[in-house]
Amino acid sequence: MSQSNTNDFIVIKAKEDGVSVIGLTRGTDTRFHHSEKLDRGEVMIAQFTEHTSAIKIRGKALIQSSHGEMETD
Ligand code: TRP
Question: What family is this protein classified in (predicted)?
């Protein structure tokens, strides 16, 4: 994997209470390995790592990454 992939990080800002940021495992088995709850206004800065291949966000949030900015509905 190239360095730029592993160094990438995303910013998640919760727009309501109880937003979940869920990390999914890298490898043959794709499953939840971590769940973080954010309340309104809280920010999480997360990276894709050796252990984390995907991040699922549940609830209203603003997400910034190198791909741009988006909001969950
Ligand atoms: N220990 C996890 C890891 O290194 C922590 C983590 C990294 C994480 N990125 C995440 C957890 C994104 C949830 C969402 O992979």
Answer: Belongs to the MtrB family.
